[in-house]
Specification:
It is a single chain. The protein is of the alpha/beta class. The protein has one domain: UDP-N-acetylmuramoyl-L-alanine:D-glutamate ligase (3-Layer(aba) Sandwich). About 35% of the residues lie in helices and about 20% in strands. The chain has helices at about 70-80, 95-105, 150-155, 170-180, 195-200, 205-215, 220-230, 235-240, 280-295, 300-315, 325-335; strands at about 5, 35, 40-45, 65, 85-90, 115, 120-125, 135-140, 160-165, 185-190, 215-220, 250, 255-260, 265-270. The protein has a 10-stranded mixed sheet, with helices on both faces. The protein has a 4-stranded mixed sheet with strand order 4-3-7-8. Helix 2 (about 95-105) links the parallel strand 5 and strand 6 (about 115). Helix 9 (about 280-295) runs antiparallel to helix 10 and helix 10 (about 300-315) packs across helix 11. The protein starts with a strand and ends with a helix.
Length: about 325
């Protein structure tokens, strides 16, 4: 049950790094995978074209679904039969109430989700006829997330933990303190957007630098890689490995991905499918890597192929979670290719 609390938790509107209070009931057994990040309502506008600067587009309709990187990864892991939990903050508005209701219906442990004052994070998505999209995120709940003692214990007790770069920098610094312990579970870090997009709400560049060495898996898309490293693909993967990353995934959408570990670099193509909506494909991909590469310790090529199938299946349906596949569905897809 998502906790709703209008009492003062030391986190007034506009406050800085004051942590959330530890007044949420204990969740019981910690799930195998704990994800930290936003849970949102996504309003998608199918447009005639993605507008350029000073340009325009027409949207004949609007579609609503649920998303958010943190929630998407947690649900994707649950679809792969991994017990999963989410640490997130929602606002006390109507959007927050709808997201909380949705999360309560998912096979995801929601005991570490809190509702607090302020607007819930939500997204406006423009999607063209080829499934490509642009995303605008608004609302303050995700950027005001702070960890409390129970959250820190939840992360430390997991079999694997996931954080998106969109989480506040203070959250990352506390998670890094846990990740750097000798007994820590493997942490997966996703540099989900370019550095300019993270300014004021997500991980700072120096924090990203720390994750390169501390994360068991460092994931980055081509746009974010270009922003952070000045390169992408195999060059980015090699650069991250030289900086101390143990496992790396550099994704490039329909051009596939490059994975890297101590044994080498692996160029893995994407699957050719009919794309309906690219939203959430990266989240499905990361969850599959958590499942196969981190928890199952499968070889990089096997894990990468499994993740590519998960991402491919997700883009064949509308919404960030529309095509999230089960393990059986992914294995069946792979068996036919």
């Amino acid at each position: 049950m998502v906790a709703s609390d209008d009492a003062g938790d030391g986190d007034a509107v506009g406050s800085g790094d004051t942590p959330d209070s530890g007044d949420i009931p204990a969740s019981g057994d910690t799930p195998a995978v704990v994800s930290v990040g936003a849970a949102t309502v996504d309003r998608t506008y199918p447009v005639t074209n993605l507008p350029a600067a000073d340009g325009g587009a027409y949207a004949p309709a609007v579609e609503e679904s649920f998303g958010g990187v943190g929630a998407n990864v947690a649900f994707a892991c649950a679809r792969l039969d991994r017990s999963a939990g989410l640490i997130a903050r929602l606002g006390d508005d109507e959007v927050g109430a709808r997201v909380a209701e949705n999360l309560a219906a998912l096979p995801v442990n929601d005991a570490r989700i809190r509702r607090r004052d302020g607007t819930s994070t939500h997204c406006v998505i423009l999607r063209d006829g080829d499934g490509k999209r642009s995303i605008v995120t608004a609302g303050e709940s995700a950027r005001r997330l702070r960890l409390d003692d129970a959250d820190r214990g939840y992360l430390a007790d997991a079999d694997a933990a996931f954080l998106t770069a969109y989480n506040p920098d203070s959250v990352h610094r506390e998670a890094l303190d846990i990740a750097d312990r000798a007994e820590a579970p493997p942490f997966v870090f996703d540099l989900s957007g370019p550095l300019a997009e993270l300014s004021g709400r997500g991980a700072r560049e120096e924090t990203v630098d720390r994750w390169v060495e501390s994360a068991a898996l460092f994931v980055v898309g081509e746009v974010a890689a270009e922003s952070y490293l000045g390169c992408t693909g195999g060059e980015a993967a090699e650069t991250l490995r030289e900086r101390g990353a143990s496992r790396v995934a550099v994704t490039s959408g329909e051009d596939g991905a490059v994975l890297a570990d101590a044994d080498g670099l692996y160029d893995l193509p994407a699957f050719d499918v009919s794309v309906v909506d690219e939203t959430g494909a990266g989240d499905a991909y990361v969850a599959a890597l958590v499942d196969r590469w981190i928890l199952a310790d499968a070889p990089a090529r096997e894990a990468g192929r499994f993740a590519a199938a998960a991402g491919a299946l997700n883009v064949t349906e509308n919404g960030a979670r529309g095509g999230l596949a089960t393990r059986t569905e992914i294995e069946s897809f792979l068996a036919n290719r």
